[in-house]
Amino acid sequence: MASCIFCKIIKGDIPSFKLFESDKVFAFLDIQPLSRGHALVIPKYHGEKLTDIPDDYLSEVLPVAKKIAQATNAGAYNILQNNGTIAHQVVPHVHFHVIPKPNETEGLGIGWPTQATDMDKLKALYEEVKAKM
């Protein structure tokens, strides 16, 4: 897409600190990092959500994220991927964050507000989702 900032980075219209590039994947340092080594891994196929991206573009993403985590010597790190604005996606192009977590204050900070489980409802949901897979 012509207006997509990540597509412009892939094409070289916007400069980046490129870490990796192949026919299907591009990785670069985040310019607003949460910690040292925070990087983005993006498929070259433009799609807003994970479900929009062909599997062959996604198959390289995690190996590249793994290489970045190793190259930054991150003992602890998060791999984050958001879908939709209410899920905190800012750029409407699928991207995976590799965020080193060197200590309690740097890197990604998250809350995990769990909910009580009704096992009958959980079983019904399981059957519904499994049938669609």
UniProtKB/TrEMBL annotation:
GO terms for molecular function: hydrolase activity; nucleotide binding. It comes from the Eukaryota. It catalyses: adenosine 5'-phosphoramidate + H2O = NH4(+) + AMP. Keywords: Hydrolase, Magnesium, Nucleotide-binding. InterPro entries: HINT, Histidine_triad_CS, Histidine_triad_HIT, HIT-like, HIT-like_sf. The keyword Nucleotide-binding applies. Its cofactor is Mg(2+). Residues 5-108 form the HIT domain. One of its GO terms (biological process) is nucleotide metabolic process. A motif (Histidine triad motif) lies at residues 93-97. The active site is at H95 (tele-amp-histidine intermediate). Belongs to the HINT family. This is Adenosine 5'-monophosphoramidase HNT1. It comes from Aspergillus calidoustus.
